[in-house]
Amino acid sequence: MEQKKVKDASVLKAAWLIALVTIASKFMGFVRDMVVANFYGATLVSDAYFYALQIPSLAIIILGGVGGPFHSAVVAVFSKLIPDFDSKPDETVNKLYNTFLTVSFLFFAFCSILGFFFADKIMGIIISAGSPELVALASAHFKIMSPIILIGGIIGIYYGLLICHKQYILPNLSPMILSIVVVIVISLVHNDKTGIVLAGATTLGAICQLIVQFPKIRQIGYRIKPNLDIFNNSQFKNICELLFPAILSSTIGQISIYIDMFFASTLKEGAWTSVVFANRIFQFPVGILVTAFLVPLFPIFSRLAGDGDTDSIKTYFNKGVGVLFFAGMPMIILILLLAKDGISLVFERGAFDNNAVIMVAEALCYLSFSILPYVFRDSITRVYYAYNDSKTPFIIAMSSIALKAFLNWLLILQLDMGIAGITLSTSFVTLFNATFLGVFISKKIRLDYKSLFKNFFKMCVAGSITFIICWLIGAGFDKIQLPKYIFEAAKIVIIIFCCLGIYTTLNLLLKMDYAKELFNRIKSYKT
Questions:
Q1: Nearest 10 degrees: Cα torsion 195, 196, 197, 199
Q2: Predicted model pTM
């Protein structure tokens, strides 16, 4: 029992540390988006850049980022080979690292070369409904950013190794490097009418993001000695068995984004930029939450699965998801009430006008409904990976493609919902994935859903009452005459404080477990 308390404290401490670091990194990403919005707005140039960025971002964020397939496969396999988190890698572990690194380098280098030489055809397929000017500009951007495809997988390997050795700060802080480089470069060049400078700055930032990882990897004890020892290597086989379905699963998820890109290209100029900005804003709070709690929990899941300790997995899963639900509910409320005011306050300047504000706010509000299924899906996927099962998430993700296409067709072309149809369909698909992942996990482990959803019901009651009260407060505040930015800032601060205060109080009155635990922890810190 004492050991469990120590482990709980360790996870909580790591979660707070990762949260703080991720907040800093996400904040810098937010600044980057503000600068990009200021210089490029929601226009054809910004659409071209974000269309072209989608494949490189698949490599550096989805495949190679924290929580991506490369990071997950490395943690799942290497955490079982290293005796404890503080151990140096032995010769066997180093050899496995070099095999994985060599194979990944060769594969992604090949993909980068293909991307460069076939940029026109790739962009022509992805945005086939777009204008020739849009396709040509997106192709030029993609050629410049094609090296990021090579960089992404390598970053993912480094992230996984660092997490295995309890080095939580660097993996979560290094994305800040890319943002800083982009902000500096495009701020120095004021007349980038085509976005070529922006694309170049993004590639340079990714290179810098990779470089900062390397010294810490060497310090831990990993040395580069390329080899292709891929045959009769059981551990490399384990990595591949996890990695390939996970990559396919992420790629399948990316296909859903390409479906969105196609439908967005049929809408008005700036539509895809609006969807991208809505996703970026969405990822700011949600990404912090998911990263903070799941990064330290994932190696623990893997070790507990290896030990056959199912009871502890159930306990940690319920606590992790319960806390994420508890924090996610007020996020939905605040987005629904404050999206337009917040986006206007932060982004409405330069080329980013009121029309762009309305488009992004609309996309964000419908996307907010995916917050709770999103955190559940990402949490339970880690349990699948802990049991070396990435096939089930892949199959479920693949089955959602047809649903995504159908919902986009229905909501955009038939019901004429426009941009809102894209993000609402995303919310439905996320719920679909979360539901089926939750059902099929019973083949691995029977999770304690009863207590989890009992607390979730209390959160829903508290959240509904909170939304109504805060909406009334906001409606009353709208009648006050103040200068635009002062009004928006004051309204945001007041609604946030009211929302958090009312929501937390109601959960305490309803005796919701996670609110009580939070209150007791705060109380113990004071004493």
A1: 90
A2: 0.72
